[in-house]
Design brief:
The protein has helices at residues 3-32, 34-52, 64-76. The protein is mainly α and 89 residues long.
């Protein structure tokens, strides 16, 4: 396995870990700190989810998910996403 493939796969793993972690944080805030949750959800939780991308928040800038999609072709030499394996499908 090439170094680029290993690096890309690690980035995919880290993005997934971050997504799981922010969902856990959100759950804890919602259950244990209700008085602070609404503000957290509206501001910093939304910012984190937006930055990660593909978590239900609209974004108009580069996201972690979008960055991974854009380098996937470089890593796997994907020319046509319909013909090749795509991690995001």
């Amino acid at each position: 396995m090439s170094q680029k493939v290993e690096a890309f796969e690690r980035l995919m793993e880290l993005r997934e870990e971050m997504a799981v972690a922010v969902q856990e944080v959100e759950g804890i805030m919602r259950q244990e700190f209700k008085h602070k949750y609404q503000n957290a959800e509206a501001y910093w939780i939304a910012h984190i989810k937006s930055a990660l991308g593909d978590m239900g928040y609209p974004t108009y800038s580069t996201t972690f998910h979008g960055a991974l999609e854009s380098i996937e072709g470089e890593v796997y030499d994907v020319e046509d996403e319909d013909e090749e394996e795509n991690y995001f499908e």
